Amino acid sequence: MDLSLFLQHMVNAISLGFVFGLVAVGYALVYGVVKLVNFAHGDVFMMAAYFMFYTSLIFGAPWLSAVILGIVFTSLLGVGIEKVAYKPLRKYPRINSLVSSIGMSFLLQNFAVVVFGGIQRSFPVPEPMKKTLIFGEIRVQAVSIYTIIFSVIVVLILTFILQKTKIGLAMRILSRDFDTARLMGINVNRTISFTFALGSALAAVSAVFWALRYPQIFPFMGQYPGSRAFIAAVVGGIGSLKGALIGGFVLGLLTVLIPAMFPEYSGYREAFIFLLLVLVLIFKPNGLFGQEAGEKA
Question: What is the DSSP string of 119-137?
Fold first, then answer.
């Protein structure tokens, strides 16, 4: 493989890594604050794609407006799911909420089948995203470049929210101790709702990048990116935002570079990914950047 082809694959791997990473950060946000693995997160990702599709199709909204409205609707969906499926179970053992998240996943999938239909639908792709950019001998799809640029912007905005705002401080305190947060006057319910809204918004942004890359949406489209994002979150350290993002990059590299550099092993790509997961769980049970139980630093 020559250098130009390798760089092309690297751009694709990085853009896909950002998609996996942003979905994984949504997992990590919720787990970090509520200590809940939200298995419905991949299906929230799917609903976001449908929100954007029908906002554009039915209301005739411009593409960018449809994306913004889709993100808003998805954030509201995330808050609604927390209120209905998780908040009533907060005082009970965590396994109850875990089972509820699995049930919510099935509910969203079957709701989409009944309401939107089981057939695939073409996601609208703006003309600038369809172009192929040429840099010397390197040919890169424009959507990959846009994905990287806007993902960096999203990560910077997320970092600002968590580090520089009162609600971000409240989320960080809540992730350490609920009782201490209440004693400090933090509105726990509002903070948890905001966490679900923010995590769902990240899923919506990822859904945009995914649908632009693979412009076919269907009720079960969230399963693959959702499962990969969950693996990324576990590899990076569930609850660690930095770990989730880096885990997404690792999976993006494996997904793109194994078939590109070792085509004879392309059929074993999934095996390599799960082998990585097993090795991390054996040698680093808390993930690459996860904290030990009780660790506060």
Answer: S-EEPP--HHHH-EEEETT
